[in-house]
Protein 1
Amino acid sequence: MLSIFNITGYRIEKNVHSYHQGNLFIAHDVNSGSLHLLDEGTFDVIKACEDLQEVEKDITLEGINQVLRQAGKQAFGEEELLEILAELDELRRDGTLFSEEAKALTPNYPEQPIVKAICLHVAHDCNLRCEYCFAGTGAFGGSRKLMDFETGKKGIDFVLESSGHRDHCEVDFFGGEPLLNFKMVKDLVKYGRKAATDQNKTIKFTLTTNGVLLDEKVQDYFEQEEISVVLSLDGRPEVHDRMRPYADGRGSYAKVTPLIKRFATNRPDSSPFAVGTYYYVRGTYTHFNLDFDRDVLHMADLGINQISVEPVVAGPQDAYAFQEGDLFKILEAYDRLGEELLVRRAQDKSFNFFHFNVTLDQGPCLIKRLSGCGAGHEYVAISPEGDLYPCHQFVGQVEYKMGSLYDENPHQLKAELVQDFRSANVYAKSSCRECWARFSCSGGCHAANVSFTQKLTEVYTLGCELQKKRLEVALYVKIKEIQQNTVSSSAVPEVRC
């Protein structure tokens, strides 16, 4: 055993993610969040140590060189190898690489859930018939209907009261297509502003729309009321129209694109992290457009600079679902997108791709990173009938109904479901406990996990692979930006460069 680099009992694969992206060799220290640039030799040594651990062998000089030779790489002389290990050990002692593993925490929640955000389903109807729609083209498995004012008002009252001591609440108008019930939206914003002021609180309003009804009058209202907006566009005309047609089969690209472009032009200063008054354009990619990076760039070329494109969540019965062999093409698309984003930023043609956002010096607290979005106890969705669900993707699933606004005590959410969602953190998921990305993805989307595994505590494995790839590219892009902007090298330590 090497006394110069003694990491007995410490699993490298779980706690240090070293990888090759573009022309960089990168090590991400999971527990401290530190990033390190490596030369190829140091990278190979870390990987060799990791391989020795995986086969339960001691980390020795000969063992490292044996792994390197088996991989067809050059072995090191004793002096050079000891020098590399000494430098790694110095970083270990500094707490920036091979840092102490964060101890498992159990989030301490109040007995009564503090619900700070709601998703108001003001319309269970839609003017499009998107093929991949998780909401059953707007009806969520039920009849098509619009929310009435009384139910919406109760929803506003619910979040103001359930948010307890919190001064800020969030309300997202959702559908279907919420602009089919635009007058109701305006009435609820007016009511919510006054009700919040009366309780010395504020409400942040957001609306998600397919853009069909996003005329100038509607856009002006959003600006006047400082309402954040999420808009739907899948990218190139043929890609968008294939999956997002009207009920009669006509494509919607020609209608929505000019409206979305106008909105993006009139709101240029949106936050890349979706805070404040923002917009972003959200698309979905499927088996039919594995080169979705071209769709992102198409939107950027339209002048849209806040973009999110998500992988479809679909079962094997769906033609647009991902198939065996698709993963490699998807990963390549993320690689290409990262490189093109860097090129455009260097040319002052920057756009923001939501999934490549990462900060090196700040972020949510550990508890938040363990538990994720807060669905089912900090955030709930409300159907047009006033039924309460953990989030918008669970609406209509009877087994996940948590209560109703029309119950005698609507704040008494179904205790078993609250506990299930509170407990579904990374330490409750066996694959997450061993994953280097555990503090970044928080165990993935609850709804996607249930859809594919029928359990909150088992993960959707394809979603995991995509999340890890996005994080790798995001860290790479951040390092490249630091290099290009000649920021102090202390921001990204270099080892043997």
Protein 2
Amino acid sequence: MPGPVVSVGDVCKSFRFRTSGFGEGGLLRAVDMVSFEIGEGEILGLVGESGSGKTTVGRILLGVGRID
């Protein structure tokens, strides 16, 4: 049996944010330890609430986003 076509392991992505114009802020963990595999002929649906990191995972898969 062939291996997975796509394999994602323990992906994490954080974004820095500011709460004021004086540099205060923090770190927002948008994706935390996401792992999955997609085999040939399989379909994966990624669902979640707004702001849960779906687009961030997609951008990382496409090579547009960088992982931490």
Protein 3
Amino acid sequence: MVKTTSQEILIKNLNFSYPDGQMALSNVSLEIQRGERVAIVGPNGAGKSTLLLHLNGILRGDGRVRVAGLEVPGASDGALRRVRAAVGLVFQNPDDQLFSPTVFDDVAFGPLYMELPPQEVDRRVTRALAWVGMEEYAGRVSHHLSTGEKKRIAIATVLAMEPRLLALDEPSAGLDPRARRSLIELLCTLPQTLVVSTHDMRLVQELCPRTVILDQGRLVADGSTQEILNDEVLLNTHGLERP
């Protein structure tokens, strides 16, 4: 009998330095189970975004990274394609993901990259836009939309690939209160495993039952969000504030 596991992410002793020699991640180990919603928090330069970029092989450090049952470092082109289909990475700036003539084209880009037939591409685009409440925007130009609308379209671009997990970098950055509330409500409805890098501690409190703190590239705390938010000494030590 094949043993099944609910483990979605395994990171073991991960180290990464940028070309200038700056250490961005130092001996980071982390496990995330399927369906979890986990916040990655910490001060600027803590390594949060760097860690997210390892989940689909954009960056490859020294150590073990396994996502959705696939080993990431050293993965072949075919394996990387499967990893990137499994991991929906949403950048902090939605303009980094939206570059096509229309919203439909932006959302269709991933399924087309997966070489899916046109009928399946159309189905996935329609479903992804419906999921984020943007069905009527298919013919619009992405760069003419508000920041909140762009964030929703950016999420739709990865949902169209039907990923097993979503990795979001500062998803609430630049949003007004109404757009921020709408985004949190949307993320709460998604069934995927969520890994969220953020400074927004209110979002953490409302969305993520588990929180991980990174500081200077090191994992310094990992526990329930409520316990971490109640530890003022821990928060102050690592440049964080209670919501």
